[in-house]
Write a structure and sequence with these properties.
Elements (H helix, E strand, L loop, with lengths): L10 H13 L5 E2 L5 H8 L3 H10 L6 H11 L9 H11 L11 E4 L7 H8 L16 E7 L6 E3 L4 E8 L2 E6 L8 E7 L4 E4 L6 E5 L19 E9 L18 E5 L6 E5 L4 E2 H9 L5
Parallel strand pairs: 2-13
Antiparallel strand pairs: 1-8, 2-3, 3-10, 4-9, 4-11, 5-8, 5-10, 6-7, 6-9, 11-12
Bound molecules: fe (ii) ion.
The site of fe (ii) ion (FE2) has 4 residues, from strand 9.
InterPro entries: RmlC-like_jellyroll, RmlC_Cupin_sf
Protein name: Cysteine dioxygenase
Length: 291
């Protein structure tokens, strides 16, 4: 019998992949090194990536932001609309819902989001004071991962970027190439302040999972029953935006990325979009009564 999602590995394989991740060079995780070995493994991380990691190093969600996000993820049904839970639900069970894996929420730090209108309408957020012509593909994205939810295996193409853990916990599995049966290179758990990274040539293919306790999962395995979440901050630079490392000709950028469909197990293309924009979500969070 095949081991269960998200990674379809046995406990023994998981143990081995975690050990492998601690030996792989360059280091999969950027953090403040606490040993010579760790320092050496991080030496080979490209300067452009280190620059992104250093700039993100002190970012955290504040306590009130975390609490308000929890409120909006809470599965309890009452009279007040819980925005993030509603979006998750629509992403799975809506008209064009995706039932191949449990959903997560992408928040564009610049640009706009698909559910901005809904958020504004429900929470009385005034029309934006930012650029209406903004694009969907933001170089900086906040991702909210409900406990036990996960992404498909996907490739970030030729971008250079970081996946920086802001809250909770996130597991990142690195794959050698974009293929259902691709060799797994290592498994790491990120905690706040740590980041994983990628470039065209290194660690571009991965899968992200929030290992926190999700309570009872729905019978179709697509929706958890808790408000616990992990959050990550992603920066993806296209090749023409990376100033420190020179790369040649790009065709895969952050606007489109390729992934492996979780149930069909085939390679598909996905045009990037965001669910919300940060200015709208922040307004909603600020208007959320703290319990
Ligand atoms: Fe990713």
């Amino acid at each position: 019998m095949e081991p269960p999602p998200p990674f379809y590995i046995t406990n023994e394989q998981e143990r081995r992949l975690r050990i492998q991740a601690e030996r792989i060079e360059p280091a999969l995780v950027i953090s403040q090194p606490s040993s010579f070995d760790e320092y050496v493994r991080q030496l080979m991380v490209p300067p452009a990536v280190m620059d992104l990691a250093r700039k993100a190093a002190n970012i955290r969600l504040s306590a009130w932001e975390t609490q308000a996000i929890r409120w909006h993820l809470d599965p309890r049904t009452d009279t007040s609309p819980r925005l993030l839970r509603q979006i998750l639900h629509d992403k799975v069970y809506g008209e064009r819902g995706d039932k191949s894996h449990p959903p997560y929420i992408r928040v564009a730090c610049t640009g706009k989001g698909k559910y901005d209108g809904l958020a504004r309408q429900q929470h009385g957020v005034p029309e934006p004071a930012f650029d209406e012509n903004a694009k969907y593909g933001s170089p900086v994205v906040l991702e909210i991962w409900p406990a036990q939810h996960y992404s498909p295996i996907h490739s970030h193409g030729n971008t250079t970027g970081i996946i920086y853990c802001l809250a909770g916990q996130l597991d990142v599995m690195s794959y050698k190439k974009l293929d259902w049966d691709a060799e797994k290179r290592g498994l790491v758990t990120l905690t706040p302040g740590q980041c994983a990274w990628l470039t065209r040539d290194t660690y571009a293919v991965h899968k992200v999972f929030c290992p926190m306790d999700g309570g009872v999962m729905s019978s179709d395995g697509l929706m958890n029953d808790s408000a616990d979440f992990g959050a990550s901050f992603h920066v993806y630079l296209n090749e023409n935006e990376v100033h420190l490392d020179a790369y040649e000709g790009a065709d895969l950028t952050r606007e489109v990325f390729e992934y492996i469909h979780e149930t069909k197990r085939t390679k598909e293309k996905f045009t990037t979009y965001s669910d919300l924009s940060w200015p709208v979500l922040r307004e909603v969070l600020a208007r959320t009564p703290l319990e």
